[in-house]
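pls design
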């Protein structure tokens, strides 16, 4: 399904070059940061394909080619085949569980000779397309229970399959689709986000202060609230308040079980290190400890390209992948990290702005879907490199080394840019 030449030229001319400029800038920053993180004096050329920076250039080229092909395809293709794309990546997630190769404790990779493929990176895109395709139908109303169940099923099925791969980081990203449901007017979506935040806070405070202290705090707040309602003759609110606090007590009670039976030992230790309950700078907290040293040593303007000592002497494990941000922090300093943060914020705001001007529900929902994916990736990755989030191992979009992530994020963005370029053809 290819547009005719005249229509193709018009659509190419309508491409949002601001988004593409931000994309190219981030890709270049990522490539040079990988070069710095893995620099080898015996292989000084950034075009050396035997090194990670050379291999990343190959993946950048493949991603650009894939993005260019997407811009030539009829925009209606992605709506028409959204569910087929979704089911294809669901099948790939199942294939990982059967034929996958374990890497660092996660069964999330399939190998094809020398090439490793991570389906979970593409499953996020497939879910965004499927959700957009479903919500884009004329008869879908998120106020109806059936539509709500289908929407959650589209999100939870791939999320569950990724969890079975022991890839908690990638599974958490699927939570971002709640932003889509909130934007599309699903009743209660806002409350779900509030409940999620409250549950996380209760989890943290319970680990820090213990269950007994949390029971005392919640009990005291409940008594004060009931006293306020009784004195102000707002008795109709008493039962809902008791139910809400009852849920709070239940969450606190479940923390001990969830922490000790759901999380694995290394995940427990990472949470404890994050909360200051465990001091292990030479063990489980080593990555974050060295990462913070690297970022802090960069100061205001950084040490300069290829001049980072933490980077040069490999103090930070996985620095070219999950911890690429600390390379930027050490060599670019505050100015470098601020520039990268501004680029990400600009990209997210641009995607949301473009999503709002779409004439089709499919394009708008898909735009919000990928905006949520990018936001969670950026927030968690940068958060864990500076010690504000537990280390769960997800890449920084367009910056981290990795073919699957580079290709998936590029294709994800290219599809949306194509949809935006085609918006004027939709009546």
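designed seq:
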């Amino acid at each position: 399904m290819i547009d005719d030449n005249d229509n193709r030229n018009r659509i190419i001319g309508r491409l949002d070059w601001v988004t593409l400029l931000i994309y190219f800038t981030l890709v270049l920053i990522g490539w040079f940061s990988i070069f710095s993180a893995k620099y080898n004096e015996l292989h000084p050329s950034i075009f050396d394909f035997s090194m990670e920076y050379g291999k990343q250039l190959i993946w950048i080229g493949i991603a650009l080619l894939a993005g260019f092909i997407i811009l030539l395809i009829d925009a209606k293709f992605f709506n028409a085949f959204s569910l087929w794309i979704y089911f294809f990546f669901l099948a790939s997630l199942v294939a990982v569980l059967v034929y996958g190769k374990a890497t660092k404790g996660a069964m999330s990779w399939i190998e094809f000779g020398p090439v490793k493929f991570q389906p979970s990176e593409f499953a996020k895109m497939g879910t965004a397309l499927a959700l957009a395709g479903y919500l884009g139908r004329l008869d879908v109303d998120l106020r109806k229970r059936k539509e709500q169940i289908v929407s959650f099923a589209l999100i939870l099925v791939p999320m569950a399959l990724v969890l079975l791969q022991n890839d908690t980081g990638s599974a958490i990203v699927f939570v971002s689709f709640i932003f889509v449901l909130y934007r599309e007017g699903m009743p209660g979506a806002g409350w779900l986000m509030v409940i999620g935040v409250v549950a996380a806070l209760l989890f943290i405070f319970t680990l820090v202060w213990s269950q007994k202290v949390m029971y005392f705090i919640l009990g005291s707040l409940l008594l004060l609230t009931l006293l306020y309602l009784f004195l102000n003759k707002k008795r109709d609110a008493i039962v809902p308040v008791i139910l809400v606090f009852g849920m709070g007590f239940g969450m606190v009670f479940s923390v001990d079980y969830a922490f000790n039976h759901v999380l694995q030992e290394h995940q427990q230790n990472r949470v404890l290190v994050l909360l200051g309950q465990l001091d292990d700078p030479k063990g489980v907290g080593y990555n974050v400890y060295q990462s913070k040293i690297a970022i802090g040593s960069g100061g205001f303007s950084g040490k300069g390209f290829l001049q980072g000592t933490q980077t040069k002497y490999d103090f930070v494990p996985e620095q070219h992948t999950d911890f690429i941000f600390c390379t930027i922090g050490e060599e670019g300093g505050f100015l470098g990290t601020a520039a990268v943060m501004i680029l990400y914020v600009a990209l997210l705001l641009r995607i949301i702005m473009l999503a709002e001007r779409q004439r089709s529900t499919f394009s708008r929902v898909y735009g919000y879907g990928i905006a949520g994916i990018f936001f969670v990736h950026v927030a968690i990755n940068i958060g864990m490199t500076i010690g504000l989030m537990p280390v769960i191992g997800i890449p920084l979009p367009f910056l981290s080394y990795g073919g699957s992530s580079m290709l998936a994020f590029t294709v994800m963005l290219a599809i949306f840019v194509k949809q935006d370029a085609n918006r004027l053809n939709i009546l």
